Each structure stands twice: as structure tokens, then as C-alpha cells.
Amino acid sequence: MQLDMESREEQPSQAQSQAQSHSSVQSNVRTKTDIAWEHVTQVVDEKGKKAWICNFCQKVIGGGGINRVKKHLAGIKGEVVACSKVSPEVRFTMQGKLKETAQKEKEKRTTSVTILDDDEEMEEIEMSTVKKGKRKSTSNLHPFFTKGINDPSQPTIKSAMQSKAKIHDVDLAIAMWFYDACIPMNACNSPFFQLMVDKIASIGYGYKAPNYHALRVNLLTDAKKSVSLIIDSLRSQWVDTGCTIMSDGWRDVSQRHLINFLVYCPKGISFLKSVDASDIESNATNLCNLFAEIVEMVGEKNVVQMVTDNAANYKLADILLLLGLHVQRIVLILYLSELDNVKSLVNLASRVTIFVYNHKWPLNWLRKRPGWKEIIRPGATRFGTVFISLQSLYDHKEDLQAMVISNEFKKMLKVGNAVECKQIVLNEIFWKNCLITVKVMTPLLKLLRLCDSDEKPAIGYVYEGMRRARRGIKELFKKKKELYRPYTNIIDSCWDRIIYCAAYWLNPVFQYDHANLCKKNEVFQGVLEMVEKTFKGDDVLNITLNLGRFRDAEGTFGRSSAVASRNLTRPDEWWKLFGGDIPVLQKFAIRILSQTASSSGCERNWSVFERIHTKRRNRLEHQRLNDLVFVHYNLRLQNRLKVDMRSYDPVDYENIDKTGFWVVEEEREGELNYDDLENMLDEQEHEPASESQGDHVDHEVDSEFQLLSDREIDAYNTPISQDP
């Protein structure tokens, strides 16, 4: 009996020791597997206590466990000295781990509070049920049916309606805040809007929103740090793939010359800064210093090229030549829209659209026509909108002519510019010039849309697209130099061919298409020039000697998988997969083929940047306002690809800016009601590229050119009389 008692007493103690041992093992396993331990070395100090030495800065971290190690690596000051030599990737990872830990602890606290509140609520309901709902059962039915609608323990229609009323009250409170603060309605489309609401709901009743000072100082600083971590994650890609600095020079309403700088790599676009260059635009030395500062911020070895769409006020190419950068000046559509005949045609077309969209009767009459689509449909850029609108206007030629010759239109002749509109619509020369301009511009717009891709680097397809567009324009005008040269000269002047030649030659889509490969000497010369600009010494010789192996598909370049994926894989990705036999050549090809071919990332509403460079009504200090714009624009860039940009909101002020020339009269600005517009983008306008980018260029560019008749060619450039 005594033995039984002793054995029973021993069992709990054994169970306890086993539990403690199991807990210790779990702790040790967790400790050993934590990612932070990879970056420190465990030692024992003079007192016999454990300490850790950072593998980056060699500083000793004593006590506190893994949490202090993570804070040291994450650069969070306070409890421990921040590491000054940790890599951006490790710092970003550690900060993410600390945030996860803090979030889990917060969720545990929130869950415990919620459970406590629910228990108290249940006790109140049970007490109420005992006092008021106590009665005998009168049948064998399930209690749910016997309690009736008046039983307080059953949710009633009244209580359900009350919950809907509460939701409506919350919705109304949010709406009232929008209205009171004059916040645009489309702000609710921000990916952070619902996230904000969820965070507020998760923390529970009693949460107090941050005040003006917190938003202005502390939280803005924290937000900038978070966004900077995103930029750091992109910065690590710049070393491998190289990057493109995109600059957008423009003038605000005060005629100040502002320049915005962004950086492109295949993983994303990031905004660097905005600069007021009004005082230095005429001084080449100061401009050179400005661009040198930007290059230094990005890293000279990381920069492959600079792309700009506005260099009219200074010789940017000469300045950047001093920095050893390759420069691209993508202003094709701007130059084309400034041709005299195109400019005159666009002005006449805009008079028609302004008349239609500023008078109710013409717009209503046209909308009743079968198969009607809105004339004005915005493109990706305001210059693209010009030619898209010309195409749309030409498509509505019959509808517009039917309107102006109808009996009802006679009543409109005394209104506004009705007579002028009628004369333009009935002028056949106007329509023929519209047709020719559209035929010339359509393939060029498609080429630019190919170049404007943010998701896929398009630089490897630009040379072939230019080549086909140039040849097609010549055929369009039946090789009459006086007609096609204004267009081909612009194509030649807008693109520097060196980097495009190199990208074309290194693109497996075209290199192994022997029947159509351009064999001009300038193509291979472009490759050699880019090699000499990018590398020095033995690397230049190594690359030059191995270019033939790529051309002849030797080694891994000739593997069956490499051959099969030439037209299915992005060129830069193809080189990553199959260029490993020649690492230096692989690096060169990836850096060239990973670049963008345009500055489309700059095509945004820049009005927010005007506030940075003005002193009027500036409540934030200059640096804080810069931080605000830095956070705002980078968040928008990161979320750009997640949002379906094909849907067009007629009350979206950024898109209205692109179409204003076509729908707003200067002397009557603001009278147009945009709520009635159904400006949907043409599906073909935003059609994704085919799986084979090479086929995309071949078919989309060439198929658009249809030869003009001799009569149409003779009529082209004829001055347009407004007499019908």
C-alpha cells in the first residue's frame, strides 16, 4: 500500500519534469531556428553570462535574448545600439519580423478583451432571460420555435434593423468626414482605406485618432521609414539589373522649371525627389552638378541610362555626356503633335468636340444613334489622347454629318459656334486629313504603348518597332519624300540608336530570326559601343570574343529548352536562364534588356509637386512637405500595378486633365458636367501584349499600314477651308 502511494507521488513529479524538458526542447528549437541567429555569434563574457557579437559591426550585445538582437539589426534605437553596417535586405527582414511579433501580441490582447466583453454580454442576456423570459413549454417543438418573436433571447427583426442602422451610422460618419474635409470621392479606392477601417475596428471601442501634430511629425517620419524600406528592397535589384533614371522637366503655372526624378528597374519604379531648377536651367555647370547628385544617390555603377521627355530648355545630352551616361529623349508624340498640318487639324477637331460636349441637344442627339460610343476617350498620356480622339472623331463622321444636316440642327445655328462646327463637319478635306493622320499615328501609338509597359522591360523591341514603323510610313505615302520625311525625320531624331541597337541584337526573339534580322552595320556597332561604355579592360575583350557564341547559339544558348523559350520568355529572363556559360556577357545583356524605353512613369498629375516649391500657404516645413510627397508618390507607384487602370472614372481629375483640350471651352471653363460622360477606354487600346513580344511588334505595327490612294495623297496638306 505504501509502495502504491509512493509510486503515485512519483508520477506527477515525473510528468512535471517531462513537461519542463519538452518545453525546454521547444524553446531551444525555436531559438536555434530563428533567422536572427544567422547574423550573430554566441560568446560568454567574463562573468560567465551569454552575449552575442554582431557579424556585421562586431559590437557585443549583452542580455535580452533574440529580441534585442533583432532590434540591433533592424536599426531600432532605444534598448540597444543600432547596427551601422547591416545590409538593407537584413534590416528590412528584421523590421518585418519585429512588426509581426508586435502584431501577434496586439491580436492576443484584443482577443482576450473581446472574449471578456462577450462573457459580460452573455451574462446580461442570461439574467434578462431568467427575469423576463421564464415560462413553461407548451409543446414538443424545438425550443427555437416555442419562444416566439417576443422572447428577448432570440434576435428579432427589430434588433437586426438596429444593426443595419448602426452600420449606416458608421457609413454616414465616414461620408460626413469626406464631405467636410473636401476629400475626393475616389480616395475610397485607395488600398489603404479599407486597411485603415479594419485596423480601427480591430482595436475596439475607445480608440482616439492621431492628432494634427502626430500626423505632421511623428507618423510622417515613421511612414517615410517604411517607404524607404521598400526603396531599399528595390535598390538591391539595381546592382543586378541596372536601372534607368527618369526625369520629367515641366513648368508650373508660375513658369518655374521643375524636374521630378524617378528610378526604374524591372521590380518597380521609385520616386527620388522633385527639384526647382528655375535658377540653374541656363547654367550647364549647375545642371551637371544636379544630375551628378542624382546619379550619386542611385549609385553610378547602377545607372545604365537616363530617359527624359522634356529637354527643350538645355542640351541635356551634352550635360549627361560629361557624366558618362547614355541618354534617351522620348518626345516623339510631342513633336508629331507640333507639326503644322497636325496642329491645324487638331485645333479644328477640338472645335467640333467642344461644341458637342458643351451643348445638351447635340450630345443627346448623338447618344441616341445606334452603336454610339463617346468621342473623347483618354489615352495613357495627354499626347496619346490627341490621336485617339482624332480616330474616334473619324469613326463618328457619318453621325456628325447626319446631325448637322438634320432639320433639328437648324435651331442650333444661332447658338455658340454651331455654324463653324457645321462647316468643319461637312468639309471633306478635313476628314481626309483626319484619316491620313490616324493611319500614320496608329502604329506609332502602338509602338509607344509597347514602350510604356511598366511590367515588362520593352527596350529590346523598340528598334524593330521603329524600323517597321519607318518603313510602313514610306509605303503609306508611296515613297514620296516630301510627304513622309517630316515623320521619319522625327523618328530618327527622337531615338538615340546605340542602346536600342544593342538591345535589339541581344534579344533572342530577333537574333535567331535570320530571315528578318537587320544586318546593318549600325546594329553591331551599337553593341560594341555599349560594351565599351559599360565595361573596361579585360571584360571588354571577354565580351567581344564571346558575342559569336551567342550569335551561333553555342553551348547553353543552343539547348532545346533555350530554343523553345526564345519567343515565350522575357529577353532579360532568358539570359538569366541560359547565359550562365559567359557570366560577363550575361551581366551585360541583363543590364541592357532590363531597362525601360520611355518615361511613362512620369506621366502623372504633377500639381501636388507645385506645393513643394511655393511658400504660399505652406503649413508644413519644406523638408516635411518633401517627405509627404516622397511617401505619397512612392505608395502610388507601388500600388499602380495592383489596380486595374483600364477603368476610367469620368470624375477622375487626372484623366480630365488629359481630355480638357477636347471638351472645355476656355472662356466657359467648368460648365461641362462630367457626371454624364461614359468615357470608357477602348478595349483594344489597353489590350495586353501577346505571349510572344516579337510577334506583337511584327503584326501590330505592319498590319496598320494601308496604302493611300493618289487622290488622298494629293489632298493631304491642302489648306482646309471652313466653307462646306
TrEMBL record:
Its main location: nucleus. PROSITE patterns: ZF_BED. Residues 31-90 form the BED-type domain. It is found in: Nucleus. Coiled coil: none annotated. Residues 1-11, 686-702 have a biased composition (Basic and acidic residues). Pfam families: Dimer_Tnp_hAT, DUF659. Keywords: DNA-binding, Metal-binding, Nucleus, Zinc, Zinc-finger. Residues 12-27 have a biased composition (Low complexity). GO terms for molecular function: DNA binding; protein dimerization activity; zinc ion binding. Residues 1-29, 678-724 are annotated as: Disordered. One of its GO terms (cellular component) is nucleus. InterPro entries: DUF659, HATC_C_dom, RNaseH-like_sf, Znf_BED. This is BED-type domain-containing protein. It comes from Lactuca sativa.
